[in-house]
Amino acid sequence: MSPASFSYTVVICHGSYHVPEHYRPFLAALEVEGIEAICPQLPSSDLSKLNIGDVSKPDYDREPPPGGYPQPVDDVKAVQEVLEHLIVESGKNVLLVGHSSGAFTATMAAVPKLQARTRKENGAPGGIIGIFYECGFMIPVGESVHSFFQPKDGSEPIKHGFNGLASTNEGAKYFFNGLEESVAKRYDGLLTASAPLTTVLDNDAYTALPLAYLVTEGDMALPSAYQKSMVAMQSQRPGVDLQLYRCPAGHSPHLAWVEGLVFLVRAFASKVLDAQM
Fold this sequence. Notes:
Elements: H1 3-6, E1 9-13, H2 24-32, E2 36-38, H3 72-89, E3 93-99, H4 102-109, H5 116-121, E4 127-134, H6 145-148, E5 166-167, H7 171-174, H8 181-188, E6 193-194, E7 210-216, H9 224-235, E8 241-247, H10 253-256, H11 258-275
Parallel strand pairs: 1-2, 1-3, 3-4, 4-7, 7-8
Antiparallel strand pairs: 5-6
């Protein structure tokens, strides 16, 4: 197997309310290790696409943009544009990293034609080698992020925002615990907004690709018990190959636990690529 077969690019699917700047330290740390890393801005969290007026002074009570707010299906299109360039045009291996709700995007974007195994069967190089979930939403096939987190007992559904657009409250506390207060506040100031995520997952990458999941034990936004329940739900399915990791960080290991996250991403990717030999 050629040296190129052991190299790979990391594509990060960021979480709701986030922007690529939140992942800059992680991207830089990967690049120090010689790993190309990309985090595209996803439309569902892009203030310029949410009709909020001046992005420096957003007005979340305005009407939705023509055609409605961007949804995960739009995020998937943005990620697949990147994947098409890396895989189809350049023949590169790709490891997807899905953080928080970005895990849904990673799962849906990893369609069979872009998977390394499928491409190898067709004599083509490169492809998606696996998905690394960073305290991610492992939403079942046939559900959306919105439907999965709704009560299943017929009780009143959870409401979102005045016009269906929600922003964060106390982001420094819930998203960025574990960082110095001033740093947490700076990243809190970069958070944006998002509409309820109603795109339904129709791609079962869980059974098609090697998976890793990092449980964040100190998470105040998505408690570790909930993360573990999602992992258990998928792990019990036939054909699922999942490596479970744990760390003490909160909801942002890409900021508060960078060295550890880079180590685990490299270890998982190496394991997957070694298995392809």
